[in-house]
Design a protein that fits this description.
heterodimer, A: mainly alpha, two-stranded antiparallel ribbon, 28 helices, 7 strands, B: about 0% strand
Chain lengths: ~700, ~325
């Protein structure tokens, strides 16, 4: 039997281990030892964190962390508390950090001698530690302090490669957008503070049901905007495709895989825990979340499908996946507000399982893209190609990530998307016609997203790893260092394991969120790989719609053996296989410029969805003589797509703001006596105001 | 709590036999479609069992593999064949049930088809020719837009017939038909959408032309252009199986005539009549598809989204009708 106090000690040990990583990176210089010294504590700490999170989830305990050091400074009022919900997100953080830290040992060697490796290790550990403490926070103070620390650490990591001007620009967009988000989060918490006159989350939890609905509505909308901005909710996503690709790839992994989940955690905490959506009055929260999620899904994937920069495409795909998670969360709130508790649990399971899956495959994909950039020094897919021959392991692991994120059996993405689809199909049990039709529209959007996600990842994998290399850099590439391969294979193997044995993840989710205590969702309690995932009805019984990923995988194996046997018998004699050049229609040598590129592959999609992309083509042809237009001297074609959100929303807003500020600036004369006059006027005005309102 | 292992061995054998029957008739259905197409075009056409000869011949031939290709190209035919046969195991065809349905519903079948598509497109890109990329880029666009149409149709079917489990869909379709409901209003819209989707998924005119090798028109053929010998046999066989799976879904969802209902019970005579009626319906629908194919011309690529939008709109109508008619 493990006591709550033991958990507390374990948690403090984890914090100490990460802190030692902070110290190590400052102490050691820039040798290989230093790299290992700054990432080894992170590896150990995250492994401990995984153990801690699983123990807390399974035992269902609620751990109050009493830190003797911090408790002596009551002004800080740092109050840490870990329940199942927090433990689940700590599991995500632990798993991803474990893989990424190992990967970072090899990855960070490219910076030695160029940038400060000291600050890299320091910021890496600080970033992870701050995310851990955000999740553990139990009061407004500590939550916001660590939230800000997390934002700042990630900001400095985004601009780590500061020699490139573009990275600075991305960093600035990021820091502005993230602070707008923080302001909304603060406002949302303050609404609760006004009602409960307490900064502690405990009192929010206890008093939530007695808070008037309209107050909770306001707080929810503020939290939705605030946490939405951090998780890449459209149209607040503008920073994400700039900041995530600008950061070093191991940081991109952490940002996309974990930081987005920290924002999701905030939203889950405020919505389900403080919001208490138990009556149909809160149903519109669910609609807002689900439709916001659906919009993010489709916009994210549409831009991912045409993006030429491999890391940017992955960042857009993170917006899509955050959308899927929000969609599931929204469905859960919707079902919960109509007291369909079994379905609410199913939807939350879908959403949380997808969070876990996205963390795994997106960190894998970013690490894979990082390995490609590490060896070829380019992020442009049009200059890559053929890497499967030079980087076979990276290619295989990236392929596993691509198959998982595309939602294909037998990988983990399929299981969570199956759950989301079943959630949407269960919407007929909602007692409201308008809601039913709305959700069916949302389902269409979600299905289109799935189709486009498949196309996106075929394109990313196909163009980057298959066919002929499109540049000398791709030709010269060689396999990534071993530590990077090991880091990627950890997440890849968990992706496969959760795809074949999803019961491991589903039972973790149901233990973390206490489904087992609700008696509504017993079907997820099984611990057998062949047990089915089912869909409950409002009465709690299971419908006939079910799926067992383990059995599907087993059947595929049997069919494979059967096909191999059959073909061996049917083909009789052994047939030869000749290797010859690709069919060139008899015209002679094909070269790498004749194959499809990233841009040409997505051309049909660009045409079909041209409203969003506003594609712009420029062709410039020069001739030897103007009289004969068949002999072309040179030809140049350029195609651009534009971001309608940037052009249609952000640029006007920025322009208007600058205009207003320019007018205000006329007051700023630079003369000190003018400023003294302003102070005088302000003082008098305040005195008058005080007199009038007395 | 249904454990697939709890299904008796006898039923599992019946399910496997049913699937073997289904994949056995797959080339026959392809042969019938080619024959019907030939006859409506005033040609005599090859015998309906020609596809079997083709497969047997291809299996015995040596193959040529592109020097640019990787293991993706070589393993893709295996993955296509394995995924389609696994999908076939979940589909009720000759019988109104499949014993494996607790483990895999219609969403699993669609997922397995998506896996086939994924590797077909990658194989097209892998050989570094312009044809492969061309096919993949067109297929990408079509399949992305087919997906919402397909899902919405499943939405209607699962609302009208209870869930995504194929056995329960088939049996409730049969029960409804037996109780005198020929077709539900929502299902009329679903049938239109599903027919369009079937044409798109199997790569038939107006989406694609399975009988062409012109770069202007081909989609699926462009992606698998480099295959030869045993690999080509596997690609073609898996394509035939996919087609016959979609036909059985169509027949079981929308034309439950002569299907065994649970009330009648499982006997040798009733099983035989159900199986025969399935075969007859499948041949009839395939002949209908082939006939429809000769009545239209191949559409321009960028008009295809319009047709798919019709399918989406039609199944959306189905959803609305379901909710209002209830």
């Amino acid at each position: 039997m493990i006591l709550a106090a033991d958990y507390s000690i374990l948690f403090q040990t984890i914090i100490l281990v990460f802190s030692s990583g902070l110290a190590n990176s400052l102490i050691f210089g820039r040798s290989t030892v230093a790299r290992i010294a700054s990432f080894a504590p992170a590896i150990a700490g995250s492994l401990l964190l995984v153990i801690f999170a699983v123990l807390v989830s399974i035992s269902g305990s609620k751990v109050q962390i009493s830190d003797p050091f911090v408790a002596t400074i009551p002004a800080l009022a740092i109050n840490l508390y870990v329940d199942g919900m927090a433990a689940f997100f700590m599991l995500i953080l632990g798993l991803v950090t474990f893989a990424v830290s190992i990967y970072s040992i090899g990855y960070s060697q490219q910076y030695s001698g160029k940038n400060s490796t000291r600050s890299f290790g320091f910021l890496f550990n600080l970033f992870v530690l701050s995310m851990l403490l955000v999740i553990a926070s139990n009061s407004i103070y500590s939550f916001l302090i660590f939230w800000e620390l997390m934002s700042l650490a990630s900001f400095f990591l985004v601009i780590y490669d500061h020699q490139k001007e573009l990275n600075i620009k991305s960093g600035l967009t990021y820091i502005v957008m993230t602070h707008i988000g923080t302001a909304f989060i603060l406002a949302s918490f303050l609404v609760f503070y006004i009602q409960t006159s307490s900064f502690s989350f405990d009192s929010f939890r206890e008093q939530a049901p007695s808070i008037p609905q309209y107050v909770r509505d306001i707080s929810f909308v503020l939290a939705f905007i605030g946490f939405g901005a951090k998780s890449g909710l459209v149209p607040l996503h503008i920073w994400l495709p700039q900041a995530h690709p600008s950061a070093p790839s191991n940081i991109s992994s952490l940002m996309s895989a974990v930081m987005i989940k920290v924002a999701i955690y905030g939203l889950v905490r405020t919505t389900l825990d403080f919001g208490a959506p138990m009556t149909p009055d809160s149903a519109w929260w669910g609609v807002l979340l689900a439709s916001g999620g659906a919009v993010s899904c489709i916009i994210g994937v549409l831009y991912a499908a045409i993006e030429k920069d491999i890391k940017k495409a992955l960042a857009y795909s993170s917006i899509e996946n955050a959308g899927i998670i929000l969609l599931g969360l929204g469905m859960s709130v919707l079902f919960q507000s109509y007291s369909l508790l079994g379905l609410a649990a199913l939807a939350l399971l879908a959403s949380m399982f997808h969070s876990l899956n996205h963390a795994l495959f997106k960190s894998l994909l970013f690490m894979g893209a990082g390995a490609v950039v590490f060896r070829t020094h380019t992020k442009k897919m049009d200059q890559l190609g053929g890497l499967i021959k030079y980087m076979p392991w990276t290619a295989l692991l990236f392929l596993i990530g691509a198959l998982s994120i595309s939602g294909l059996p037998p990988f983990n993405g399929f299981v969570s998307e199956w759950l989301v689809l079943q959630t949407l199909l269960s919407s007929y049990q909602l007692p409201n016609l308008a809601l039913q039709v709305t959700i069916s529209v949302v389902s269409v959007v979600f299905a289109l997203t799935m189709g486009l996600a498949l196309a996106t990842f075929i394109r990313i994998f196909g163009i980057t790893f298959l066919a002929r290399p499109r540049s000398e850099a791709a030709h010269q590439a060689k396999e990534a260092p071993k530590s990077m391969i090991v880091g990627m294979s950890i997440t890849a193997s968990i992706c496969v394991a959760f795809g074949i044995f999803p019961f491991i993840a589903t039972s973790l989710v149901s233990a973390s969120f206490g489904f087992d205590k609700q008696q509504h969702f017993l079907s997820l309690q099984t611990l057998s790989p062949f047990a089915v995932l089912g869909v409950p009805t409002s009465s709690g019984a299971l419908t006939s719609s079910s799926m067992s990923a383990g059995t599907v995988a087993l059947m595929m194996g049997c069919v494979g053996a059967f096909c191999a046997g059959l073909l061996f018998v049917a083909s009789g004699r052994k047939t030869a296989r000749k290797v010859y050049s690709t069919w060139d229609c008899g015209f002679g040598q094909l070269n790498e410029r004749m194959q499809y590129t990233a841009s040409s592959l997505s051309q049909p999609l660009r045409v079909v969805f041209k409203i969003l992309y506003k594609p712009h083509n420029e062709a410039e042809v020069s001739y030897f003589t103007d009289s004969n237009r068949y002999l072309k001297k040179s030809a140049k074609v350029e195609t651009h797509t534009r971001d309608v959100f940037n052009e249609g929303f952000y640029q006007p807003v920025v322009k208007a703001t600058t205009l207003v500020l320019d007018t205000v600036r006329k007051m700023q004369t630079g003369k000190i006596n003018a400023y003294l006059l302003y102070i005088m006027i302000a003082l008098v005005a305040m005195l008058v105001l005080a007199e009038v309102t007395r | 709590m249904v454990e697939p292992t709890a299904v008796s061995l006898q039923l599992q054998i019946i399910g496997v036999v049913q699937t073997l029957g289904l994949i056995g008739i797959a080339p026959l259905i392809t042969g019938i479609m080619r024959k019907v197409k030939a006859r409506t075009q005033k040609r005599i056409g090859a015998s309906i069992i020609q596809p079997y000869y083709d497969l047997a011949k291809l299996l015995k031939k040596d193959e040529v593999v592109s020097d640019q290709s990787s293991w993706i190209f070589r393993s893709a035919p295996w993955i296509m064949l394995i995924s389609t046969i696994t999908a076939a195991l979940f589909v009720p065809s000759f019988l109104p049930f499949s014993p494996f349905n607790a483990a895999g519903d219609i969403l699993v079948v669609i997922g397995l088809f998506a896996l086939v598509r994924f590797f077909t497109m990658l194989a097209g890109i892998d050989v570094a020719s312009a044809f492969g990329g061309l096919g993949a880029s067109r297929e990408m666009m079509i399949s992305a837009i087919v997906e919402p149409a397909l899902f919405l149709t499943i939405f209607v079917v699962s609302l009208s017939l209870g869930g995504t489990n194929l056995t329960s869909i088939a049996s409730s379709a049969a029960n409804q038909f037996a109780s005198g409901v020929i077709i539900m209003p929502s299902m009329i819209f679903a049938v239109i959408a599903f027919f369009v989707i079937m044409l798109a998924e199997t790569g038939r005119i107006p989406f694609d032309n399975p009988a062409t090798h012109l770069e202007l028109t081909m989609v699926h053929e462009a992606m698998v252009l480099e295959y030869s010998g045993k690999s080509l046999a596997m690609v073609q066989f898996s394509q035939s199986i996919k087609q016959v799976i979609l036909l059985s879904l169509f027949v079981n969802f929308f034309v439950p005539v002569g299907m065994l209902t649970p009330a009648i019970g499982l006997s040798a005579a009733s099983t035989a009549s159900t199986a025969l009626s399935f075969l007859a319906k499948a041949m009839l629908v395939s002949a209908l598809v082939a006939f429809a194919e000769t009545r239209v011309a191949k559409w321009r690529l960028f008009r295809i989204p319009d047709l798919l939008a019709v399918a989406i709109a039609s199944s959306m109508m189905g959803v609305v009708f379901f909710y209002f008619w209830r």
